[in-house]
What we know:
The protein has helices spanning 13-21, 27-59, 66-92, 100-103, 118-127, 129-163, 165-168, 197-232, and strands at residues 187-189, 192-194.
Amino acid sequence: MTTTSSAPSRIDPSTVVYRVCTAPFRVQTYKNLLYLLVAFPLGIAYFTWLVTGSALGAGLLITWIGLPILVLTLSGATIAAGIEAWLAESLVGVDASVPSFLNEFRLEDGVALPGDGFVEAITQLVTAPSTWTSVVLLATKFVAGIVSFVAVVTSSAIGAALLAAPLVYDDAAITVGAANPAGASEYTIGSWTVSTLPEALVVAGAGVIFVVIALNLLNGLARVQALYTARLLGVQGGD
Length: 239
């Protein structure tokens, strides 16, 4: 009897270099950027929903009005998690399942909850692990949204400033960096004052490199967040 062992697939360095260098020209890159940008407003909306619903529901539990509020908050969390699963798959290309409770919802029931009765439906909602991982996902999405927004905006601002150097380095009406004591505007990179076209072209070249690196890092950030969503909702990400 012979045994065969499969050697791990080797990564072709030329393929890696090609993918890194072509990041600015791939549609997927800009879908990833969109995914990162929408994370910010969605994160705020999710966090507001969870905090408001939880606080209001817990505060009104003594009157029993709080119970339906808490149920509504959990239901909304599962719906929002379903939206996150759709965004991860449609924008980043990572497979993610919606919470199990949503899969049991029947459209023909209208506004009625799934199952044979209200109590059974509430039990399904509360006992489903994906309900609580949905809550965790939404709570952490607030932080992820802030990180994503800062990363995209900062990278865009720095990249634009570097690439625009040949156009603005000698424009007295534009200040990039800091103005000199005399009040004249100067294009500065740290302590370096860019005053000639060749210097500005060097800065623009550095800007190209910066943009390529930044886009690859942002692609990685988008994929990590999408894989995190998929893991919390119970499905591994795609290749």
